Automatic annotation (TrEMBL):
Keyword Membrane among record annotations: yes
Transmembrane segment boundaries: 12-31
Keywords tagged on the record: Membrane, Transmembrane, Transmembrane helix
Organism of derivation: Rapidithrix thailandica
Protein name: DUF3592 domain-containing protein
Length: 181
């Protein structure tokens, strides 16, 4: 009888742990979706800069003179140290933020120059565009997260690359989701 009770107790504990784990996962997902929607509606925009890239990435951003550093799992292959992306944050709690990896920031500070893609491949499962381009006789390959609503129809795209670091390059998209020619 004691053996049956011990077996039932361990089964109940395992079941409770499983239910608790699933509940935590669901609550975490609901929080992320709600937080994401809230930041998209009322978040303030700034820029984050990737300072380390590997299995995880580290990016930094600044709000009202205060610097923040965040580590996160690599969102997609192809992120380079020095990449800049748009970031939305809660003005009352700046550590509550959301990097927008589908919105690279091309600023004058990096001194960008333009070229064109030599090949393009789309990864619709992950909303990525894989492209190659040539700078000073050297071929580079890059992966870029596509912004929501992008209409992909061209075979050849204009690429803006940093003159001092040509590995950092982006295909520019307009607000309407079209590639900028």
């Amino acid at each position: 009888m004691k053996a049956i009770f011990n077996k039932m107790t361990s089964l109940n504990v395992s079941t409770l742990i499983g239910i608790f784990g699933v509940t935590v996962l669901i609550l975490n997902l609901v929080y992320k979706v709600t937080n994401s929607s809230s930041l998209k509606e009322s978040g303030v925009q700034t820029t984050c800069v990737v300072t380390k890239s590997g299995y995880t990435i580290i990016y930094e951003y600044e709000v009202r003179g205060e610097k923040f550093k965040e580590r996160r799992k690599h969102p997609f292959d192809g992120i380079e140290v020095g990449d800049k992306f748009m970031l939305l944050y809660d003005p009352s709690k700046p550590e509550n933020h959301m990097p927008m990896f589908s919105h690279p920031v091309i600023d004058e500070e990096g001194d960008f120059k333009d070229t064109y893609t030599t090949s393009v491949r789309f990864d619709w499962m992950n909303d990525n565009i894989h492209f190659s381009y040539k700078v000073n006789g050297i071929y580079y390959e890059r992966i870029q997260r596509l912004p929501p609503g992008v209409e992909v129809e061209n075979i050849r795209y204009k690429v803006s690359y940093r003159k001092d670091k040509p590995r950092i390059a982006y295909i520019r998209f307009s607000q309407e989701g079209r590639a900028i020619e």
